[in-house]
Amino acid sequence: MEYYVKSVVPMIESNYDNFTMVEKTIADFFIQNRKKMDFSAKSISEKLYVSEASLSRFAKKCGYRGYREFVYQYEETFVEKQESMTGNTRMILNAYQELLNKTYSLVDEAQIARIGRYLNQSGRVFVCGRGSSGLTAEEMELRFMRIGVDIDSIKDTDLMRMQAVFQDSNSLVFGISISGEKEDVLYLLREAHRRGAKTVILTAKNRGIFEEFCDEIVLLPSLRHLNHGNVISPQFPILVMLDIMYSYYVGQDKFAKELLHDNTLRALEEGERKRREVIE
């Protein structure tokens, strides 16, 4: 299996929907390419039948100052993939490793630290999502509740819209949407932000409109161009990022939060013991 490697591919994927048709042609090449070659602007423009100016605009949309900086990063981190895989186990493990590499490339530690401060400063936390993202929202609620966070998860669309009305400057709202297109999730974030709440979206799509109503845009790796991505749970990239956030939050006051966690576990164990005594 591969080790963690910084890659430009996750940034291309997160901005894919913002590209023009020409830029998508360039993006598809860099996402799908598996061979080392001459990546100079002249060579790639001739290969793809695009102008060097298009390459420059593409690189800037990916967050680089120009195509030269983009290619430098691409060449430095380019790792040839092994095409021959022996068995399903190796295939799955390599897919997960690729996903971890993408997470490593996208995670912004300064951003995660800011979110940790939001969690400390907010009186009430809400996390919402639909489908598999909703299940992840429930997991986040259970984990952070055990260390003293006043947090609720919301999966129901009507509840999302109703809860939007009650948000204020004392609230922190997380919206989880891999596609970035779940209207009920976006509605809650938009209305909560309008009422003064801090808002955070976890998504694989970096849409320009998010900056209007999200204080933090946490980018997740996309499964779309992942080798064998169809066999990977869509919850996995979200859970990895939540684990990172959880670790940072606990680290801000490790002793107190571990004590709270232990106390909640003891309370659960005591409840289970009493239930067994009643049954016996």
List keywords for this structure.
2 domains, Arc Repressor Mutant, subunit A, alpha/beta, 57% helix, 280 residues, globular, 9% strand, single chain, five-stranded parallel beta sheet, 5 strands, Rossmann fold
Strand order of the largest sheet: 2-1-3-4-5
Radius of gyration: 22 Å
What integer is the average pLDDT?
A: 86
- CATH topology description of the largest domain: Rossmann fold
* Class from helix and strand fractions: alpha/beta
**Spans with pLDDT under 50 lasting ≥5 residues?**
none
What portion of the residues fall into strands of 2 or more residues? 5-15%
Could you walk me through the main structural features you see in this protein, from its secondary elements to its overall organization?
The chain has 280 residues and is an alpha/beta fold. It folds into two domains: 9-80, Arc Repressor Mutant, subunit A (Orthogonal Bundle); 108-263, Glucose-6-phosphate isomerase like protein, domain 1 (Rossmann fold). Helices cover 57% and strands 9% of the residues. The chain has helices at 9-14, 21-32, 41-48, 52-61, 67-77, 87-106, 109-121, 132-145, 157-164, 183-194, 210-213, 236-251, 254-279, and strands at 124-129, 151-154, 171-176, 198-203, 216-219. It has a five-stranded parallel sheet, sandwiched between helices. α2 (21-32) packs across α4, α7 (109-121) packs across α12 (236-251) and α8 runs parallel beside α12. The chain is globular, with a radius of gyration of 22 Å. The model has no long low-confidence stretch (mean pLDDT 86).
What topology does this entry show?
Elements: H1 9-14, H2 21-32, H3 41-48, H4 52-61, H5 67-77, H6 87-106, H7 109-121, E1 124-129, H8 132-145, E2 151-154, H9 157-164, E3 171-176, H10 183-194, E4 198-203, H11 210-213, E5 216-219, H12 236-251, H13 254-279
Helix pairs in contact: 2-4, 4-5, 7-12, 8-12, 9-10
